[in-house]
């Protein structure tokens, strides 16, 4: 089973033939893959990164406008490869493939990585740019920034099933940021 996040696409054949079950991901997806030793599962993402799956549940975030791809393992095992570099992950671990290498995080934030799949925006010390990037993808809006910057970090959980106007209203209640909406553009002001 595959769950796709906003702004994501998964490319796969109608029937898996050959020695591997290979799919291509742009964006973010959560995979729950059944093991099949005769036909291993592989996810290809940006910049030549492959994730080889050994029957498992995991999240991959590989948006083109993000620096690299992030694979977070929930259960089972996966092998993340980029060229000659590779990292075997155990549950609760994460690999970031960027700048030609793989960085390993032995203690991933599983709740943060899978919040979108569970119907939530989850922010922990998130800059406004990170917050707005998620809102932009989910609500399919453009974001502009007024002069001056919002330097504060945001924390909180917001359900994804509320209207954009309500999410912006909740963020404004912090007193740290203000928004205006004109057409399909949300403007951020300090």
Major sheet description = 11 strands, mixed
Count of runs of 4 or more consecutive helical residues:
3
Q: How large a portion of the residues is in β-strands, by DSSP E? A: over 45%
What's the shape?
elongated
Unreliably modeled segments = none
> Quick one: how many beta strands?
16
The end-to-end span amounts to 42 Å
What is the string of SSEs from the N terminus onward? EEEEEEEEEEEHEHEEHEE
Structural class: mainly beta
Helix content: 10-25%
Rounded Rg: 18 Å
Q: Summarize model confidence as the mean pLDDT.
A: 92
Q: Could you characterize the architecture of this molecule?
A:
This protein has 3 helices and 16 strands. By secondary structure, the chain is mostly beta strands. The mean pLDDT is 92. A hairpin with a 2-residue loop joins β15 (178-182) and β16 (185-189). Strands 1, 2, 3, 4, 5, 6, 7, 8, 9, 10 and 11 form an 11-stranded mixed beta sheet that branches. The radius of gyration is 18 Å and the shape is elongated. It has helices at 110-114, 128-139, 164-172, and strands at 2-4, 9-11, 21-33, 41-45, 49-53, 56-62, 69-75, 78-82, 85-89, 94-98, 101-105, 120-126, 142-145, 154-159, 178-182, 185-189.
Walk me through the topology.
Layout: E1 2-4, E2 9-11, E3 21-33, E4 41-45, E5 49-53, E6 56-62, E7 69-75, E8 78-82, E9 85-89, E10 94-98, E11 101-105, H1 110-114, E12 120-126, H2 128-139, E13 142-145, E14 154-159, H3 164-172, E15 178-182, E16 185-189
Parallel strand pairs: 3-4, 13-16
Antiparallel strand pairs: 1-3, 2-3, 3-6, 4-5, 5-8, 6-7, 7-10, 8-9, 10-11, 12-14, 15-16
